[in-house]
Each structure stands twice: as structure tokens, then as C-alpha cells.
Amino acid sequence: MAMKSWASSTRVAKRDHSKPKAGELAYRKGDILTIVETGTGKGHYMARHNTTGEEGLISTTNVREREAICVDPSLSLMPWFHGKISGPEAVSKLLPVEDGLFLVRESIRHPGDYVLCVSYSSQVIHYRVIYKDSKLTIDNTQYFYNLLDMIEFYSKHKGAIVTKLLKPKEKEGTKSAELELSKTGWLLDIRELTLGGSIGEGEFGAVYAGDYMGQKVAVKNIKCDVTAQAFLEETTVMTKLQHKNLVRLLGVILHNGLHIVTELMAKGNLVNFLRTRGRYVISTDQLLRFALDVCEGMEYLESKRLVHRDLAARNILVSNEGVAKVSDFGLTKLDCKASDKAKLPVKWTAPEALKKEKLSTRSDVWSYGVLLWETFSYGRQPYPKMSLKEVKELVEQGYRMEAPEECPPSVYALMRCCWEAEPRKRPSFQKLQEKLERELTKHSPGC
Ligand code: ADP
């Protein structure tokens, strides 16, 4: 029987296979291949070549998993964007002229507008891009929400300009994210994606359910180009992380801004999951399993010296099988200085992190304590009825939340350990995991 395996959809060829036998696929070292079936016999997959679109059998030993993308600030979704440079400067950058070579600059004469500069037939043509009613246009006919859209359109259609855009002139010091994503196998094909209904509302737009080559996926579309660039960093972090309790990235699509495609967590976020079911449906045992799931995901981040910085039940998603996974790596960082204090979620953030802007795995442990409280109170808002200012002041003075109703005392004791004022005194996720495992055996008869 054909099996679809979530984790294994994309592979990279380890060596050339240029003389295929009948039914086999030809490929070269480094080519990106998408597995379409794994149940095709021992040692073989049925795969599709991402560039040629051809399908055929490949040997499992000839391919490897995709590599993580280096978190590299020079990686840009808009490497062709050169900022405020003059017309003559743009011309000199586009020399020697090559048909279809292009860049975008900010207009000096008309602040707020852009100029698309394109090489064609030994000259450089400058198209003024007008910003009108929150949209961009060159010809008052074709309108775009952002520069990414505009460049995508004119790369496929000539439209009102002299030639299709063929080759970006990259700004010095930037690297094309598109190229890097495609080389490493993280760029997905929009034609394989079928979008379904909206399943959630994020800060930067709706999240949709979808289907990607037979796999159920969730798709976040970020239209604004500046935000898309910021999310690219979150995505590169995700390429490094693989754990059963972290929401898994399938890849990204560059179309209409940025589409981030992840595994579908059919039961939504943990807060809604708990609130809509409540204590008569969800047992303490199940709550403990959620707590352990999250703890294992966090222990993995801890082992990679990554700090999540926004751990809260709203950022935990539940799979169809009822497994809880950590999501929203938007703030996850190796370096632990809070660059934007205003953004920290006060009710979840450790006092030293709020005060000294010092974030660490141990401040994630504090947030985990709050998450435990949310879990055992079936999705209540922490510090009920207290303002952020009150929370900040009282917690600093030693105030801690009381145990949620009917919470096992041993679980409340864990929360209190996570809320030790002194970060060093808080347990590690590894220690927490051991304690939760012990707790779970107490609560699961027969285990
Ligand atoms: P934000 O932008 O506020 O961080 P997200 O965009 O990550 O939030 O998600 C918003 C909501 O969309 C989540 O609370 C959840 O209900 C839903 N959602 C996000 N990702 C997934 C997913 N992979 N599977 C199922 N639902 C999801």
C-alpha cells in the first residue's frame, strides 16, 4: 500500500544518477526530489524531480534529509531592493546591461514611491511605481499589495513593461532567500497546494487549512513584505528543529508574499481546546500528558540552547491524535537579550526578564509554570482580574498565583518551583520532565 509519510516528503540527492533504468528517475547530486510514495518496495521511493517534474523510482540510499538553513540576516526575500539610490547609481549597478536584469530603488524625487529599473537593449529603463490607496502600480491598471507581488508578476508577465524581469541585481551584502530555500529543498511548489478554510487568526493574518501533496497542512500567508522578511527568520529557525513535540515546518512558498506551510494541528490551540471541553471531558491524566508533551519539546529547545521567549498555552497546538506541540518560534533566539521589552507578554514573563531584559531557558521555565497553571485551570487567563501593572509589581514583591481548582498538590508544587525568584533555583526542563513522568505513572492506573 502506498504510504504518505509526513516527515519525509523532501530529499536531496547525494550523488548523480544519470543513467536511469526503466522506471527510474534521473537526477544529479544536490537536486531536490519530492517523495510521492514510500511504499514502493524495499530500498526505493517513488519521487518527483522538483525542477523537471518527472517522476520515477529512486534508491533510498542515494538521498538524504534536507539541511537546516543558516540563520543569516543577509538572507533576503527582496535582494533586488537597493533602497535610496539615485537613477545614475542604479544604471551603474545594472552595467554591463543584460536584458531583463533589474533592481528596485526608492525614489529620491518622490519620497514614498519606488522605481523599477530594468535593463533592455543596451539601456536602462526606469519605471516609477506609484503608491496609491495602499497599493502599488506602474500603469494604473495592474495593482499590487507589495513589491514582492509586483516583482513576481513582472517575472512571469511582461505586462506594460519592456521585458519580463529575468534576473535580479542583488544588493551587495544580501543573498537571495528564494535561491537558498530552493537549493536546500525548503521551497515548496504553489501548484501542489490546495487551500481550504480559515482555521485561525494570527497577529499578521489568517491561518488556513490546506492540502500539500496529500498531506494535511496549515498555511500562514504573510502579505506585507517587511513582515514576511521578519518571518523568514522564524522559518530558518524552524528548519533546524525536528522533534515530535514541536510543530513541524514543511516548507515555504514565495507567492503573494510568504506562505509558511506547517503540519496541521487539527485540534487547534491548547487554550481553546481546554476551554471548549472543560474538566468533565478532560481528565487530569490528559492534562499531565499535555504538560509532559510541552516539557519534552522545551527540553529539546533547551538542549539546543534555544530560548523560546513566548511560551504560553496559546502557542501550544494539539494534533488530531491529541499530542501537544510547541509552536510560534517567532521570538526564538540563540542570543537572549530582549530587544523589544514592550513586546514581552507580562503575565508569562519571568521578573528578571521584565526587569533586566535577560531571557534564558530558566525564564522559559517560569513561563512553563504559567502554562501549567493555564492547563490545570482549563484555559483560564492567568492572574485573573489583575492588570499588567499589578502583576508586575506584586510578582516582584513575591506574590504567586494560587493553585487552580482541583489541581493535584504535587503539580502545584512544580509550578511554584518554576516561579522561584532566583532563576538558578528553577528546575531545568529535563528535571521537570522526570518529575512529570513520575506524576503520570501515579495518575495512570496500570502504567
Ligand atoms: P500568532 O500570529 O498570533 O502568533 P498564529 O498565526 O501562529 O498566531 O496562529 C493563530 C491561530 O491559528 C492559532 O491560535 C491556531 O488556532 C491556528 N493555527 C496556527 N497554526 C496552526 C497549525 N499548524 N495547525 C492548526 N491550527 C493552527
From TrEMBL:
Gene Ontology annotations for the cellular component aspect, listed alphabetically: cytoplasm
Stretches the record annotates as Disordered: 1-21
Domain annotation SH2: ranges: 80-169
Keywords: ATP-binding, Cytoplasm, Kinase, Lipoprotein, Myristate, Nucleotide-binding, SH2 domain, SH3 domain, Transferase, Tyrosine-protein kinase
Positions with biased composition (Polar residues): 1-11
Domain SH3: 6-68
Annotated ranges, domain Protein kinase: 193-440
E.C. no: 2.7.10.2
Segments passing through the bilayer: none
Known catalytic reactions: L-tyrosyl-[protein] + ATP = O-phospho-L-tyrosyl-[protein] + ADP + H(+)
Entry keyword ATP-binding: yes
UniProt xrefs under SUPFAM superfamilies: Protein kinase-like (PK-like), SH2 domain, SH3-domain
First-listed, main subcellular location of the protein, grouped into a coarse class: cytoplasm
Subcellular location: Cytoplasm
Domain of life per record: Eukaryota
Family: Belongs to the protein kinase superfamily. Tyr protein kinase family.
PANTHER family to which the protein is assigned, alphabetical: TYROSINE-PROTEIN KINASE
Name of the protein: Tyrosine-protein kinase
Species of provenance: Salmo trutta (Brown trout)
